[in-house]
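Regression report. Comparing outputs from two consecutive submissions.

Submission 1:
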Amino acid sequence: MLAQLDLLIGSTYRPHHRGAEEVRDARSHRPPATPDPAGADHPRTEAAPGLAAGAAASAVPRDRRGPPRTADARGRRARRTNVQSAYDWLHRFNATGFRSFEAVSNPRGRIPIITGKQIRELVDVALSDPAERGLPFTTWTVRTLTEYCRERGLIPGFTNEWVRRLLRREGLTAQRIRTWKTSTDPDFDPKGGASAPSTRSARPRSSVICFDEWGPLELRPIGGTAWARRGHPVRMRATYTRRLGTETFLGFYDVHADVLAGVFRKKKGVREVGEAFRRLRACYPHRRLFVVLDNLRAVHDNPRFLRLLARLRIAPVFTPTEASWLNLIEPHFGVLKRATLVGSDDREHVVRRYRIYRALRLRHRKLGNAAHPLTKIRMIKPVKLDWH
């Protein structure tokens, strides 16, 4: 077998040397001699026929041979390495047979750079408070997190970008810290429990309405985000005066019909809110109404306003103190603000009022409830009641 391999390698493995044939080609394609400033030609060096390949190549001037050809040398070394590998495999076959070819060199695969345990420790450190670990920081940055884990041997010598990618792969991203509210109302549970069932499912021949005031809305530039070319941001005025007063949007949201409507008024007193509720009753003349609203001091808890609700056959459902998130109209006000107020600079209330009404009509057309009675609250005549 060794003799056959030697014969095979001897017939195929022929080191490539630049012999006399290449030298002759170099001579035939040699550029014409360039005269020197003195007028004499450069001397020509002819290679003797008996010179070896290396000597013949060195006989050609360097300016005509070009740069040294290191790629050929690397190729020769690679071929010698392949021949040695073939001999190694042949000896291994003679010793063990085909078992050497069937065995896997590394059955467990490549050794992992970082283990699952190290990743879990990295996530635990990222989710912890730096003050608990004796550091004078309030939050982790990628740099401080990497340095802390490196010093304690929790991770290998990763860069900050590697650590950031590992955290992102585990579902951790740098986010803004959000706030949350706590209600100080001692009757939070009874009030919160009363508002939850009323908005979960509609009762027969009844409707659940959420009411809240949005405002006061003043005429001033309201910043935001906008698409623009790099280096050319959208700008708005920074100096302004507010001489036209404010407005308040008295909004009603039908929970089960998903309809948002309302009216604009200069104030949000008992008279203005009462007039809006009389319009609401005109939109639902033959249905029982449950209205979820907050306990706005001096307005919603006013005895005069409560008597009006009783005469209109409207059952108020008050949310707990400092628990406005229980009112389902609140998130809709946020969406409406981002769509119609962010990035605006209105000079008149009529312009903004018209834009908000158009946005509400577009919303109802997309949802297919443009014919709902609550959408006519601006045009309908309020129920007439005598004030006592």
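Submission 2:
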Amino acid sequence: MKVLQYNIFLRPPGISNAGGDYKDERLQLFIDNVLQENGASFDLIFLQEAFAGYCGCCFGCSGRLDKLRRAAADAGLPYSHSGPQKHWCEGKFLDGGLLILSRFPIEKRDTLKFTAACHSDTLAAKGALHACIRLPGGQLVDVFTAHLQASYSYTPTALVDSTQRLQLTELHEFIVRCCEGRETALFGSDMNIDAMQPTTGEPQYQHLLHALKGEKFSDCIDMLLLKDQQNGNPTQITHPATTVKYTWDTDTGTEVVLDSYLHDENGDSSHGAQKLERKACRLDYLFLLSGGRERFVLTPRAAMLECFLTEQLTKSPYSAETTKPRGPVWLSDHFGIVGEFEEVGEGKLDDHFGTLSEFEIIEGVDKGGDGRVCAGCAGF
């Protein structure tokens, strides 16, 4: 079972950075290269920022979402779940931008709309999606995706931190309710919690793990840290960056948008009188949750980052020469996380988890020569 977690960065019409977001161009690249080229290999895809738009007739967004769904169905992923839905009377003018695509039948769907939000996030129906899918072996597994409150400063403010904590409480209650008696769950999300942040990263990351596990789950496996967890050294963790490098004014702690996030990251370190710093973040996660070692439906087998450089995509009009200065260098401002799992039947985790040597964690180098992993990924 092959899973992709990805913030696709398809924001609504009228919302873009300097230089534009190339929404339609990037969507077509995603369809041509991720769905059609590799679609046969993906069984489950979690997407964030796949917005449906301001209203049902908004062609700019709803047309993209419909196009994405149709392309996924053509690639063998006909089952989907999207939301949470917008609600104008509640001041939610945008949907939540979440989408689950599945090769396997979805037996049950559920949606959570967060009650806590701040800043511009209050205008969107941010929350979480649940789908209970039936695996080829006949077993059921619960899968979730979510998108938490965004931080708009270099160090998260107290308001953002408290909002995320409230959302995590709601999220855990949602997970427990949806899983019912089942004890295995997959969770792919842009959590907007930067585990690489120098001062707050590790405490927030540990709180994230604790909030997801609660009292229901005994194991919370971070697929990008599989080696560290298997080595029994959770305190010696090097988090990989899962985003491009954003630009910050180090004097004010605010973000400076010099150009689209999708352009090349090279540039001046100063802008007028401002002192700038380019910094990547670890915001994206793919977790495998288990309620106990006696009932483990899936076992992890491999994990890797997919940077999706447009010049390395098989079907792309861009090359190293033509993408600068025009055209997107990246398919999104986030990188994808690919996880591979095996359906093992209900049994003891110890019987299936294996030793470290049985796992393949591809770290920051293009081992296969096909450009699937960017050697420049910060954090590796």
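Expected: both submissions complete independently.
Actual: both completed, but the second showed a warning that disappeared on reload.
Relevant detail on submission 2: The chain has a mean pLDDT of 79.
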